[in-house]
Amino acid sequence: MTALQVRNLSKTYGEGHAALHNLSFEVKEGELLSIVGPSGCGKTTLLKCVAGLIPATRGEVSVHGREVTGVPDGLAVVFQDYGRSLFPWMKVGANIAFPLETSRLPKAEIRERVEHSLAAVGLEGKAERYPWQLSGGMQQRVAIARALAYRPQVLLMDEPFASVDAQTRSGLEDLTRRVHLEFGMTIMFVTHDIDESVYLADRLIVLRRSPGSVLAELVIELPRVRDQIATKSLPAFVRQRSEVAQHIKDAS
Ligand SMILES: Nc1ncnc2c1ncn2[C@@H]1O[C@H](COP(=O)(O)OP(=O)(O)OP(=O)(O)O)[C@@H](O)[C@H]1O
Q1: Which residues belong to any copy of the ABC transporter domain (predicted)?
Q2: Are 100 and 222 found together in one domain?
Q3: In terms of domains, do 210 and 161 share one?
């Protein structure tokens, strides 16, 4: 089944700055789609249109068959800037519970979800800490836990690991793959990092810029369960990584 459909999407800012032109693609239920492209090709613009945060100029986006006109139910976003996405005056547990407070969920269910999602990201026992008492990588895991606690059907991730060190980044990539498989979640992952885009994806779309449009689409030929060292040594990874790099070079 199709979880997310983008049809002939164009976005022009102001009087005539075309950021996206005639983009069409779909993401199947339970699939992890990477969107990769050079800086300024419109990745963030695309994600904002899909999340219903800004209106499209032409074309349409639908999530589970419903046209997106505002932020759709069952959709969560993890942004790059974890420092600004968590409330510093709230403890970690309260940050995770916050989007659920307006739901009609019983308090006990909210507490259970907070604990479960903290455990899923390896932060058991950290609910009573403040975000500023945690490292950058841990804060980003809290942001992922907050999205998980909401139990979204579709998760959008916008360069979520761009501001953490390389080792933390690898751990967060593996965490993303794990929650994708464990929760059967549909994920659209936006990045300009070629290795990351291939390592994470079931399928991948390369965007060209000025204006952003689909340049290539690849089905990633890697096992479902991945490992940073073993998977990146596979001939399929090396070949597909080079293929994406070539597309991006052509697009720049
Ligand atoms: N609010 C805005 N008003 C006008 N132009 C904008 C606005 N937001 C983005 N743009 C322009 O649209 C184009 C696409 O920007 P966008 O941020 O979507 O690209 P990106 O691929 O996410 O970039 P990066 O990888 O550098 O984050 C750029 O040329 C940018 O300057």
Answers
A1: 4-234
A2: no
A3: yes
Domain limit, last residue, from 133, 151, 169: 151
- Any atom of ligand 1 within 6 Å of the Cβ of 39: yes
The answer to whether residue 80 sits within a structural domain is: no
Q: What is the pLDDT of residues 33-80, one digit of tens each?
A: 999 998 888 889 999 999 999 999 999 999 998 899 888 888 988 888
- Examine residue 9 and state whether it is found in any structural domain, yes or no: yes
Nearest Cα neighbor of 203 from 179, 174, 224, 231 is 224
Q: Which ligand 1 atom is at minimum distance from the Cα of 212?
A: 14
Report how far residue 195's alpha carbon sits from residue 199's, in angstroms, rounded to the nearest whole number.
6
Q: Ligand 1 within 6 A of 192 CB?
A: yes
Shared domain for 92 and 184, answered yes or no, is no
| pTM recorded for the entire structure | 0.91
What's the CA gap between 252 and 243, in Å, rounded? 14
